[in-house]
Q: What sequence folds into this?
């Protein structure tokens, strides 16, 4: 009799069962095991399945169970674990994403992704400036009393630099594979992968050990990098590339995105500059920018008497005063938070925000976020 774990892994191996369809099937059956026990006629009558999809499931489910049994043996021999989409241990940030993988294989301490997480990504052809910038961003985090897990893809360039800097600065780090745990790619980074686990980090992948090597898989893994992260930082990138894909996905998840600007003629600054120019990333000059926008810095220096100065020197309406008081307390807020906390309707809030901007009391940041103009 197959185990629950075998059923779960097998479900991820049936062609056509992706992140979205898996959620629909779980909703329909209540348990993924039913997918392997239900009769064909009943499966075809299940809403949202259809005859063609049902036929695919019926054709492949026996072979999938056999492959899942082999995968479990591989996992036991190689100290690999997994979490299923409905498991309590499944990373909550990733679960929030509509296209979260059905299965997440891992080795190491998966719980590090439940704390603060920052993705640091960029080109494989990193310049010395890019590597230095990556190092400065990461090493300044513990100096500020913040120790987020650094998430990246273990690729050459910015990715591996981020992992190395995290290890050197005693920060947990998360490497997301675009392949199964039967290999480490690039092979040259095998030792770094081992160090990540030994230092309390984790290696993760949605791909089983017999998955075919496919360049498309490295694009798919970018959504996991973005999904596991509270914020994504693009250090260097051309206009096209994996880092730009990760930034776009992070934006689609409504996560904060930062980009390090560069000279306009530098090939690997064009992607970052484009993200900033098109309002898809916040300009990042130092670690302080990340800490400020994410509200992770506990020792912000407030200008003494600033609120009093505003009240005395600038005439404000009652609505404007409410917003200024909130931003003084919260450092920054998006429009949804301001609406909830202020009690103002959208129309009144919009008018007050516009007037405060014109008076140079507040500033607008990407993502409809507002802060006092310090």
A:
């Amino acid at each position: 009799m197959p185990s629950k774990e075998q059923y779960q892994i097998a479900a991820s191996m049936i062609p056509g069962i992706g992140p979205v369809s898996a959620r629909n099937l779980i909703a329909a059956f209540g348990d993924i095991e039913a997918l392997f026990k239900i009769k064909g006629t009943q499966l075809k009558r299940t809403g949202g399945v259809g005859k063609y999809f049902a036929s695919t499931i019926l054709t492949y489910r026996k072979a999938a169970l056999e492959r899942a049994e082999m995968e479990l043996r591989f996992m036991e021999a190689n100290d690999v674990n997994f979490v299923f989409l409905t498991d309590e241990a499944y990373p909550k940030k990733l679960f929030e994403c509509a296209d979260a993988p059905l299965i997440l294989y891992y080795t190491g301490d998966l719980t590090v992704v439940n704390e603060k997480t920052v993705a640091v990504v960029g080109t494989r052809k990193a310049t010395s400036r890019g590597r230095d910038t990556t190092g400065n961003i990461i090493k300044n985090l513990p100096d500020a009393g913040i120790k987020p897990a650094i998430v990246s893809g273990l690729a050459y360039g910015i990715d591996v630099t981020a992992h190395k800097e995290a290890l050197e600065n005693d920060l947990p780090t998360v490497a997301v594979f675009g392949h199964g745990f039967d290999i480490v790619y690039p092979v040259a980074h095998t030792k770094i992968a081992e160090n990540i686990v030994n230092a309390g980090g984790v290696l993760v992948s949605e791909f089983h050990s017999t998955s075919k090597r496919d360049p498309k898989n490295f694009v798919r893994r970018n959504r996991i990098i973005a999904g596991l992260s509270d914020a994504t930082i693009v250090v260097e990138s051309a206009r096209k590339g994996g880092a730009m894909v990760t930034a776009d996905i992070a934006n689609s998840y409504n996560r904060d995105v930062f980009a390090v600007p560069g000279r306009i003629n530098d090939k690997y600054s064009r992607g970052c500059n484009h993200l900033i120019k098109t309002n898809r990333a916040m300009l990042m000059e130092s670690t302080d920018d990340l800490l400020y926008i994410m509200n992770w810095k506990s020792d912000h220096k407030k200008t003494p008497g600033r609120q009093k100065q505003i009240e005395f020197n600038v005439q404000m309406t009652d609505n404007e005063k409410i917003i200024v008081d909130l931003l003084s307390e919260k450092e920054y807020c998006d429009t949804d938070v301001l609406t909830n906390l202020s009690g103002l309707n959208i129309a009144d809030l919009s008018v007050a925000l516009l007037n405060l901007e014109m008076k140079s009391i507040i500033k607008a940041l990407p993502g409809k976020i507002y802060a006092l103009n310090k």
